[in-house]
Amino acid sequence: MIGSREIFISVDVETSGPIPGEFSLLSIGACNIADDRKTFECELRPITDRADPKALDISGFSLEELARTGTEPETAMRKFASWLQKISDKESNLVFVGFNAPFDWSFVNYYFHRYLGNNPFGFAALDIKALYMGATGCPWAETKSSLMTEALRPSRRGNHNALSDALFQAELFRLIRVRVR
Where would one find coiled-coil regions in this protein (predicted)? Predict the structure, then answer.
């Protein structure tokens, strides 16, 4: 059911590789775009020992460390779903927003379905890169975060920490929306 009110949630993930199932979701960061003081953050126990070394270099995570300290994936997804439920109501439509949303959404969708049987966001996501391209008319090559940062001048920067990146993305989203209104 589509609610009467949209709640935009900026979501960023760090993973051990390019595709869910074969690689693990290692961390989730999320915030309510309208009130980015409302945040969610969780590091997950890996579901496989498979990893792309470049992905681990970027995130700084160790699969061995997360195997000891990470939250069980089912528990992590229950906590994420519970947080989403707390910041919404039955009349709300949760909208997943991401920078390169297809990547982040694929992991979140896979984990929600694997561990909880459904995805509170439904079957779609809003991509900030595509939104920026549509809002500015720029070519796809100019939708890199570095170029967006130059043009929009957000106060935050991305740093491959899932929550920090979700907050940075939320600011980019707000700045793009101001630009098109």
Answer: none
Over the stretch 43-74, which tens digit does the pLDDT of each residue have? 999 999 999 999 999 999 999 999 999 999 99
Read off the pLDDT of residues 103-113 as tens digits, 9 standing for 90 and up.
Answer: 999 999 999 99
State the residue range of the domain holding 53: 5-180
CB neighbour list of residue 39: distance below 8 Å, 6 or more residues apart: 29, 30, 31, 32, 163, 166, 167
* Pairwise CA distance, residues 27 & 77, whole Å: 11
Q: How far from 13 is each of 92, 160, 177, CA to CA, in Å?
A: 23, 9, 23
Could you tell me the two tokens for 164? Answer: 């920090």
Q: How far apart are CA 136 and CA 30, in angstroms?
A: 26
113 is catalytic: no
CATH assignment of the domain containing 127: 3.30.420.10
Catalytic residue (choose from 79, 114, 160, 174): 160
Strand boundaries in 16-158, DSSP class E: 25-32, 35-43, 92-98, 125-127
> Residue 77 is inside which H or E element, if any?
helix 73-86
The number of distinct structural domains making up the chain is: 1
> How far is 80 from 167, CA to CA, in rounded Å?
16
